Amino acid sequence: MDEERTAAWWGRRAWALLSAVRVRAPLVQCITNLVSMDIVANALLAAGASPAMIHCLREVPDFTPRCDAVCINVGTLSEDWLPSMHAAASACRPWVLDPVAAAASEFRMEACLSLLALRPAVVRGNASEILALASRSIAASSTFKGADSSHDSGDALEAAKSLAQSTGTVIAVSGAVDYITDGNQVVGASNGVAMMQKITATGCAVTALITAFVAVEPSDALVAAACALAIFGLAGEIGMESAKGPASLRMHLVDALYCLDEQTVTSRVKITLQS
Ligand SMILES: *[C@@H]1O[C@H](CO)[C@@H](O)[C@H](O)[C@H]1NC(C)=O
Asked: What residue stretch is flagged as signal peptide (predicted)?
C-alpha cells in the first residue's frame, strides 16, 4: 500500500534512517579529496557511521567487499587514484559519486563519465556539475549547454531528470533547495543555511552522509538521499544558532549532527514531493 508522503512521513523516515545509521554503524569507505578528508570522516562519525579513508588500489580487493557502501569524490583527482576509484566502485554496492568540478578538465570529465558507467546509487553535485555531466553523458543532447557557477539547483533540474533516466541513478542537485530525482519523482529538501557554503567540503561531507544513509536503505536511494540532505542541512541550521562564522559553524554543525533527537528531526526536517 502506498503511504502518502506528507511532511510528517518524511520526518519519520529521516529519523528512522538516522537511527538506523546510529544503530548499525555502516562501514563507509571514502575515496575522497585531500581537502575534505577530515570533515568527511568527522561528519560520518558524528552521524554514527564508521568511516574508512582507504584509497590504496592494493587494499581494495580485501577491504572494499567488506564495506556497507563506498563514497567516491573526484575533488583532488590524480592518475594514481582513478584506478582505485574504478576498483572500489566495482567491488561494492551501493556506492555514491561526488563529481566535484566535473568540467574542470577533460581528464576529470572522462573520469566522471567512466565512474558513472559503474552505476552509482546516487550522484550528488551542485547545479554546474550536474549540468556539465548531463550535457556530456546524454547522447545527442543539445539542450543542456554551459555550466558556470551562477547556476541554481532549479536550473539543473531538467538535466538531472534526464541524467537519472539515462543512467538509472538517483541524481541530487545541491542548492538553496536541494533537488533529488530518480528521473520520475522529484523531491525537494530545503534545510540548511547559506554560511555552510563558506566552509570547505561541506558538499563532500553531505555526499558521505548520503552514502551512509544509502548503506542502511539500499532499496530506496531517493528517500535515503533526500533524508541525508535534509538532516545535514538541519544540523547546519542548529549549528548556526551558536556559530560566529564559518570556523565555529563547522564545529557546531558536527556537534548538532551528533546530538539530533527525534523531536527535532521530525518537527524540523523540510522535505516535499515536487512532482
Ligand atoms: C559547484 O562546485 C564547483 C567546485 O567546487 C565550483 O567551482 C562551482 O562554482 C560550483 N557551482 C555552483 C553553482 O555552486
From this structure: 1-30
